[in-house]
Design brief:
single chain, 362 residues, alpha/beta, nine-stranded mixed sheet, 15 helices, 52% helix, globular, disordered N terminus
């Protein structure tokens, strides 16, 4: 009965908010009310309702105001992209812009840079990463130092790094990215780690162990490898929520967004689940959209005064928001394109999906 009353109250609050003009400012009464709701949402792994998801998105999405300047809505950098894989870093970086980040950078290899620039002039592309075939053995140390130094010039300007899209598994390239991650960790720059970045982390857990600003976004196979490495057992879906909780705790409190039919999120303290919307079409690249989306939302959550007063983890809230929005965009894209739905179709629906949930005040 209590659960039913809570649900009714949540929907009443949603209706009140929807009838009024959307704003990102809240008075103390709103904050206290939202605090109670958030605390109840982030426990037990119970899937979020649509009204709950809207509440979270609206709580952390900044309003658009003429007084704001370039960069305040987020500066994201993607570290990835090699000669074989140029689409993934583009998908991640452009998704961040489509959602509302002001600036989006890509640090990639020289072979990938020209291709990514052709995809979009909106991205700031840095062709500084190197692969083994392009570096002589005697030059490796100097080249690695040069790569890391170049990234260091920029790193503290970013609100979040996305590590891994299209990175590949070249040993020298992975060593360079490892050093970049170490510097980001020392500088307390949040990191969303996906794709081959997860391969790197699984083989060197110290890169993120104990770093609360790290978010891992594994798919089924990547999650399996993490469980085997950290918990030294196989994936147990019958006790999946507890296992995810243990895995996040076992890596020192990083946040893990386990992708699947339902997305499960934990930082070793709470577990949340998102099973709203979605699409039966499983085209490659959706994980790259998610990584860029989560990077933006966790950046916004960390900046939000409301979240600071709520006391909830901005990493958890950023993951929830990113998951909900990408699943919504995928659903809209599928309604339009059905079996022919591509990653680019989903990206084109990101803005529409966010506007439907958080309309810009006019």
């Amino acid at each position: 009965m209590v659960g039913l009353l809570d649900a009714v109250l949540r929907r009443q609050q949603l209706l009140i908010r929807c009838l009024g003009q959307y704003t990102n400012t809240s008075n103390n009464k709103d904050i206290r009310s939202t605090t109670v709701k958030m605390q109840s949402l982030l426990s037990g792994g119970v899937p979020l309702s649509e009204s709950d998801a809207i509440l979270i998105l609206r709580s952390i999405t900044p309003s658009l105001e003429s007084s704001r300047h370039k960069g305040q809505a987020g500066k994201i950098a993607v570290v990835g992209g090699c000669r074989e894989y140029t689409g993934a870093p583009y998908f991640s970086a452009i998704s961040a812009l489509k959602i509302g980040a002001d600036l989006s950078h890509v640090f990639c290899t020289q072979d990938a840079a020209a291709v990514i620039k052709i995809y979009s002039p909106e991205l700031i592309v840095h062709p500084i990463l190197e692969e083994s075939y392009n570096v002589r053995d005697e030059d490796r140390r100097a080249t690695s130092a040069k790569v890391v130094a170049e990234v260091d010039k920029w790193i503290e300007r970013f609100d979040c790094l996305v590590i891994g899209p299209g990175l590949g598994r070249d040993p020298f390239l992975l060593d360079c990215v490892s050093d970049i991650m170490k510097h980001a960790k020392e500088s307390n720059i949040p990191m969303v780690i996906d794709g081959d970045g997860l391969f790197l982390v699984t083989n060197c857990l110290d890169l993120v162990n104990g770093f609360p600003l790290a978010v891992l976004t594994p798919n089924v196979n990547e999650y399996k490898r993490l469980v085997q490495k950290v918990l030294q057992c196989e994936v147990n879906d019958e006790n999946g929520t507890q296992q995810l909780h243990s895995l996040a705790k076992g890596i020192g409190g990083v946040t893990i967004l386990r992708k699947g039919g339902s997305d499960y999120i934990s930082n070793g303290q709470t577990v949340s689940a998102v099973d709203l919307y979605g699409s039966p079409r499983r085209c490659g690249g959706q994980g790259d959209i998610l990584s860029g989306s989560v990077a933006v939302f966790l950046s916004w959550a960390r900046q939000s005064a409301a979240v600071e007063k709520l006391g909830d983890s901005p990493m958890i809230l950023g993951c929830i928001a990113g998951s909900v929005l990408v699943r919504k965009a995928a659903s809209l894209a599928f309604e339009s394109k059905r079996r022919s739905t591509l990653t680019t179709d989903i990206i084109e629906h990101l803005g529409t999906s966010l506007e439907g949930i958080c309309p810009v005040a006019r």
